Model the fold of this input.
Amino acid sequence: MQLPVYSLSGEVVRQIEVSDRLFDEPFNEAVVHQAMVRQQANARQGTASTKTRGEVSGSTRKLFRQKHTGFARAGSSRSPIRRGGGIVFGPKPRSYRQAMPKKMRRLALRCLISAKARDGELKVIEELEFAEPKTREMARILAALEVAGSALIVTGAPETNVVKSARNLAPVKAMPASILNVIDLLSYRVLLMTESAVRKAEELWGNGLNQGGSSASLRGVAPSGDN
Done:
């Protein structure tokens, strides 16, 4: 499979050969959905906490006698039905972490990158090199590439000046290929990858399953609920 490489002025300068395994993977909605839910769940802190009636402060003295008052019987001021009382079935600190096999995580990334390529939302560009952070220069490059809306810029290695140049543009985010993830691929419409980022992605996910077998068996099978 071949993809055009765009210069920073928006012109096609050459064609490069890329891995069909990474850029032409059939879309597996079940695996992508599971990977998205897993990433969102793992991002949760799980620190929400409430107090039960046994943990809130207050006296345990019976508020008034049981009978002959005309009122409903009441135990203590810490009852959940009273203001300042405990919470029934409230959240407690817990882990929301989900496990997912490495092969399926890699497959989800390949599915999304391939979908971007098929839909014309992937552009391979020349290397981005900024001597210093320049938001205006980043905006000029995006305009030359005819990027309208949100964009995810992926570089081969961490580029601090590229990240700083993009972070003041609201719908734009830059990151190295090694931390590319499902949520960011789903959140941004256009995917801009430098040539080195393409090779890094091929190294990480394009041939990552060759030694352990093919992912073909995963393509038509819905993921199991067991972690």
Notes: The first helix runs from residue 20 to 23.
